[in-house]
Amino acid sequence: MSVLAAPEAKAAPVRNVLEARGIVKSYGHVVALDGVDFELRAGEILAVVGDNGAGKSTLIKTLTGAVVPDSGEILLDGEPVHFKGPLDARHRGIETVYQDLAVAPALDIPSNLFLGRELLSPGLLGSLFRRLDKRRMRDEAERAMAELKFRLPSIASRVENLSGGQRQGVAVARAAVFARKLVIMDEPTAALGVRETGQVLELIRTIRDRGLPVVLISHNMPNVFDLADRIFIMRLGRRAAVVSPKSHSMADVVAIMTGAVKADGG
Amino acid sequence: MSSATPSAPEASAGLLSRVKTIPSVGPVLVLLAFCLVFAVTNPRFLAPHNLSIILQQTIVVGTLAIGQTLVILTAGIDLAVGAICVLGTIVAGKLVNLGYDPMLSMLFAVVLCTLSGLVAGTLVSRLDLPPFIVTLGTLGILTAALRLISQGGAFPVQDSFLGLTGNTFRVGSFVLTYGVLAMLLLYAAAWYLLNETRWGRHVYAIGNNPEAARLVGIPVRRHLLQVYALAGLIYGITAWLALGRIPNADPNALQTANLDSITAVVIGGTSLFGGRGGLVGTLIGALIVGVLRNGLTLAGIDPLWQDLVTGILVILAVAFDQLSRRRR
Ligand SMILES: Nc1ncnc2c1ncn2[C@@H]1O[C@H](COP(=O)(O)OP(=O)(O)O)[C@@H](O)[C@H]1O
Ligand SMILES: [Mg+2]
After folding, report:
1. How close B218 comes to chain A (CA, Å)?
2. pTM to 2 decimal places
3. Tens digit of each residue's pLDDT (9 = 90 or more) over A201-248
4. CATH homologous superfamily, domain A16-106+182-258
5. Per residue in A106-133, pLDDT tens?
6. Signal peptide position in this chain (chain B) (predicted)?
7. Chain A residues near residue B276 by CB distance under 8 angstroms
8. If you ran DSSP here, which 8-state letter would residue A5 be given?
């Protein structure tokens, strides 16, 4: 069996892994989401773009269980789900990567990869004495990194001895290893330099190529056009359009984002 | 202790860099240096009798330092170590002197110490109060309350169960007490918990990056609460070991326990910023404190000077920690 959770079925070309319909979320009289429809297809990288305050983060939070919408429904693999919290979404196979490096720097790579989901030894050692299976975590971490083709100095390195890109790589790999359905990334490269961003983007592509769909929120248009299969454009709490980077230019997308052009591709 | 971050040195790494990955090397060298100085200046220092004494003198601070290590690893600090332990000795001693069953009295005292830790942990984890203030407040409250309960004075505690851990056995020419054995067993158990279990791994993660710990689903608040309660339990057990050392309950005892236990932890290589270090270092640190106090006593130096030297030592160790943190 693969170390990475088996991405479920590559068979149907346009199957929606995650779908949201008519999502509404208000904060007081600020309507953050005003009836948003959203779908993530199997095996794609879907970029979510929009101006500041357009509602990107709020939308993502409803999909990860961090925010409960006022109305609307969310379907995971066609099945309605009601996430009560982020752990709930995680148990259903949705992993999230955050902008700031969510790693424990003094711990080594396997410890970070398995943080909160450590493997226990088989038998009584594990069940009674709660003993960590460090060996297996190390081996599996090594295998996962090899499968993701992510180069690291040594699997036993403390994360603090890695570059920023490698650290974020560890966080992304953690999501990829445990996500059974999809990975959501909220500006995963915002804190990184150009070369380090490249490493992480490459990793995201590898994850997609292995069949796991990715939702990527990004402000960086060149990155979005480099990576995305489709671009979900938000404006004023609504879905303005969903376009393909093949049929639209960066200027088109920016125009839709800012409202200079009304799009029909919703 | 290195197992928090199990590191197999790369084959290419030189001996020096390999040695540097074992964090307890520094403390061991400091311990050996002190031993060397004291051994050269006083031939009695290395006598088996004196070495046994050092071990026995290390029991109380050494065991308290286990709890202190747990708390400091979460980026906290415990200034109530001595006070909670004294609470244990006074409550157990008082109850036994009133005629209650010794075993139940001790058990009750240990439970009370655990509750003290639980209260401190609740304030730290639920109200987000700084550990420094919470435990300083606990220290003040307990110290005053204990003096009130015992009407200010110390009293003898003559009971075979409460004094049990003071019983001796011989290993070659060394005379050890069961208290020494108990301390080492507690170290072993706490080491296992900290290095070989999920619970311990999460203590490191919380001290290292609480936000990351929360994001991966570790119940950070509950974990902190457990850490303080466990520390309280350890201080309670230490009360029993303390009564084995000296059959006397004294509200004014263990005045230097804060300084000594924090010194042991920090000299042992555990960072005051949390998330780094471990119990092997702390045990060595506690031995350093024990050797230092013993050696200076043998040299006829006033205990106040011992506090002074310990104070300098802890500041040096923290400065070292701060510098190596800046380099990271
Ligand atoms: N917790 C909150 N409380 C009040 N208003 C909020 C909250 N979160 C978001 N908003 C508001 O909702 C709107 C959408 O915000 P957000 O989803 O963060 O947009 P984006 O991520 O696209 O910048 C903004 O007007 C913002 O001020
Ligand atoms: Mg945002």
Report:
1. 6
2. 0.88
3. 999 999 999 999 999 999 899 999 999 999 999 999 999 999 999 999
4. P-loop containing nucleotide triphosphate hydrolases (3.40.50.300)
5. 999 999 999 999 999 999 999 999 999 9
6. none
7. 106
8. P
